Amino acid sequence: MIIDKQSLINADTNSPSFTEDEFAIDWSMTRNERYCFIQLLQKIKPKIAIEIGTFNGGSLQVISKYAEKVYAIDTDASVKERLGSKFKNVEFLIGDSKTIAPQLIQTLQENNDPLEFVLIDGDHSTNGVYQDIKNILNYKPKTSLHIILHDSFNPTCRKGMKLYDYNKNENVHYVELDFITGIFSPEGLKRQMWGGFAMILMLAEKRSTPLKINESQKKLHNLIYLQSFHLVNNLFWFLKPLFNFLKK
Ligand SMILES: C[S@@+](CC[C@H](N)C(=O)[O-])C[C@H]1O[C@@H](n2cnc3c(N)ncnc32)[C@H](O)[C@@H]1O
What we know:
Elements (H helix, E strand, L loop, with lengths): L1 H12 L17 H14 L3 E5 L5 H9 L2 E6 L3 H6 L6 E5 L2 H14 L4 E6 L5 H11 L7 E7 L4 H9 L8 E9 L2 E2 L8 E2 L2 E7 L9 E2 L3 H8 L3 H7 L4 H8 L1
Parallel strand pairs: 1-2, 1-4, 2-3, 4-5, 6-10
Antiparallel strand pairs: 5-9, 6-9, 7-8
Bound molecules: S-adenosylmethionine.
The site of S-adenosylmethionine (SAM) has 20 residues, from helix 3 and strand 2.
C-alpha cells in the first residue's frame, strides 16, 4: 500500500521545487500539502507541537523549524536513531501512538503546557485514525490548537475521521475534511486515493452553537471513489482470504 502511495506522491512532486533548499529531507506529502504545511506552521509558530508518524522526517523538519518544542511519535525505533541528532527541539517517543498519545496529553495538561499544533499521520487504518483523534481531542486547549490529519482523501482514513462525534466536544470550533484535497492515480490497477488534509481547530473557550462538519469536496471524493480500487476492495472484501491464498 505504502509503495503505491509513495509513487503517487513522487509523480505529483516531480516538478521544479521551491521548498527543497530549505527543507531538504524528502517527505510523504504532495506539492499542495507541502506549501500549505509550511505556511500554516509559519503562521502558528506553536509553543508545543506533536507529530504522530515521522517516517523520514519530512514533515518534522518543518514543525521543528517553527515550533519551540516537538514530540515526535513513531513505532519505528530507527526514526530516533536516524533523526535524533538532527533536531535539537524534538523529543522522540517510540511506540504505538494509541499508548503514547494519551500519556503525553495527560502530562501536558498537568504541566499546563500549551499544545498548539498536531499532525496525525501514523496508523492509517480506520480505527487507528479514530483512536488518534479521540486521544488528541481529550486535550483542553490553553490557547488555540490546530490539528492536521493527513490522507483525508483516502476512504479508509476518512471513515476514521468521521467516526468521532465532534459535536460532543465543546472546544472544537471548526472541522473541514477537505482543507486540502487529495490525489488519485487513474492508471492501471492501483486506482488509489491518497493525500488531503483535514483540519480541526480547538479553542480554550467553549462553543455555544452546533458544529458543522465541513466536507467541501465531498462530491469530488464520492465521484472518484466510484472509479477507485477502494470501491472494489470494499465490495469484494469477503474474497480477500481466497485472493491471499492464490497469491502464495
Ligand atoms: C506516512 S508515514 C509519515 C510521513 C511523515 N509525516 C511525512 O510527511 O514525511 C507514517 C509513519 O507512521 C508510523 N506509524 C504507523 N503506525 C503507527 C502507530 N500506531 N503509532 C505511531 N506511529 C505509527 C510509521 O512507522 C511511519 O513512519
